[in-house]
Amino acid sequence: MSLKSMSAATHIPVLLNETIEALAVQPGGRYIDCTLGGGGHAAAILERSSPGGQLLGIDADPEAIKIAETRLEAYKDSTLLINENFANLQAICLKYDFLPVHGILFDLGLSSLQLNSNSRGFSFQHDTPLDMRFSPSQEVTAADIINTFSENELAQLIKVYGEEGYSRQIAHHIIRERPIKTALHLARVIEQTIGSRRGKIHPATRTFQALRIAVNRELEHLEAALKQAINLLGCEGRLVVISYHSLEDRIVKQLMQQESRGCICLPNTPVCVCGHTARLRLVNKKVITPASTEVQLNPRSRSAKLRAAERITTQEEYYRTTELDIKAEGWRRPTLLRKLQVTFSSLQSN
Ligand SMILES: C[S@@+](CC[C@H](N)C(=O)[O-])C[C@H]1O[C@@H](n2cnc3c(N)ncnc32)[C@H](O)[C@@H]1O
C-alpha cells in the first residue's frame, strides 16, 4: 500500500481525553509515546504540553514513523521520532539523553493503518501475504509459523496466545491444507473448521491474534518495556497503558499492582526478606474503558482497557535526589539514573 493511500485511511486514537488526563500532561513536560502509530495521541500530547513540551515517539513500523512525521510536522522542533522496538526503550532514552520523563504511553497492538493495509497480512478480510511483522527487519513471518510448526506446536500457540477453544481442530486443518500463503486462505481454513458465525467476532480473530503476538513477540517485549519505563519516570511521572486483550492487560495489571506494593514476600513469611518497596501509585483503582458513544463511533475501541500509575519516590531515593543537578527547566535528574547512564555508556564503548 502506498504512503498516500495509507494516509487517506485514518487511525482514530482510542480513549484520547482519558489518556491525556491519565498522563497529567502539562506545559513544558517531557513525554514518550512508545507506540506512535498514526500520531493521534502524540499530537494531543504535544498540543497540551506546549509551550515547551517535548515528545519522543517510537514505533517499530517505519511506515508509521513516516506518517507521524507528516502529521506532527508543526511540532518538528519538539519531537524526536525513532523507528525502533519499544523493548529497547531504556537504551533509546539513554542514547538520546531523554530522561527522566513526565509521562510514558503505550497504546498497544496495531493501528487501523496496519490492519487496513493490502500488504501486511493482519486482516483476514484481505487477500494479502501472511506477513504480520510490525517491522520488515524482523525475520519470522506468520507464513513461516503456519507452514513450518508441527501440529502440536500450532495448537499450543493458538490456544495460549489466541485463547482459542478449538485450537486442536484448527491446527489439524492447517496441517492438511499447507502450504497456506495468504490471510484469506487461512481465514477460509478456519471458517471450514469451526463454522463461519461465532457471536460478534469472526472465527479467525483469535488465531490471527495468536499469530501476531508470536511473530512480534508482543508479550515478551511489553513486559521488558514496562519494567524499563518505570525506571525512566521522574517522581510523579505517569505510566499509561491501553491494552486490547486479556493477555496484555494481565501483564500490565500484575506489574502495576506488584510495583505499587511494599513487601512482596509470600503470605505467612514472619519477617520481610524481599526488601521490595513500592515505586508506583495506582492512579485509578478500576480499569478505564471507553464510553458507549466512543465504541459506536470507533468499534475498534470496544476492547480497550486503560491503566495508569504514578511513580513515587522511595525514601532512599528521596535522600539521594537532594544532591541532584537540575536539568531542562527545573526537572530533576535522579542520581540513580545518572549512574545508570554512565554504566551503560561504558558498556557500549567496550
Ligand atoms: C494502536 S497503534 C498506536 C496508535 C496511536 N496511539 C495513534 O493514536 O495513532 C500501535 C502502534 O504500536 C506499534 N508497536 C506495536 N508493538 C511495538 C513494539 N514492540 N515496539 C514499537 N512499536 C510497536 C505498532 O507498529 C503500531 O503502529
What is the succession of H and E elements? HHEHEHEHEHHHHHHHEHEHEHEEH
Low-confidence stretches: 1-8, 321-350
Largest sheet: 7 strands, mixed
Trace the largest sheet across and list its strands. Answer: 3-2-1-4-5-7-6
Number of helices: 16
The portion of residues assigned to helices is 40-55%
Q: What is the first-to-last residue Cα distance?
A: 42 Å
Structural category: alpha/beta
Shape: globular
**What is the chains' assembly state?**
single chain
Mean pLDDT: 87
List of distinct ligands in this structure = S-adenosylmethionine
Q: Give me the count of strands.
A: 9
Radius of gyration: 22 Å
Describe what this molecule looks like in 3D.
The strands form 2 sheets. This protein has a 7-stranded mixed β-sheet with strand order 3-2-1-4-5-7-6, with helices on both faces. A two-stranded antiparallel sheet has the order 8-9. Strand 2 (54-59), helix 4 (62-71) and strand 3 (79-83) form a beta-alpha-beta unit. It is 44% helix and 14% strand. The chain has helices at 3-8, 16-23, 40-49, 62-71, 89-95, 112-115, 142-148, 151-162, 167-177, 183-194, 205-216, 218-232, 246-259, 292-297, 315-320, 335-349, and strands at residues 30-33, 54-59, 79-83, 101-107, 233-243, 280-282, 305-311, 325-327, 331-333. The chain is of the alpha/beta class and 350 residues long. It binds S-adenosylmethionine (SAM). S-adenosylmethionine binds next to helix 3 and strand 2.
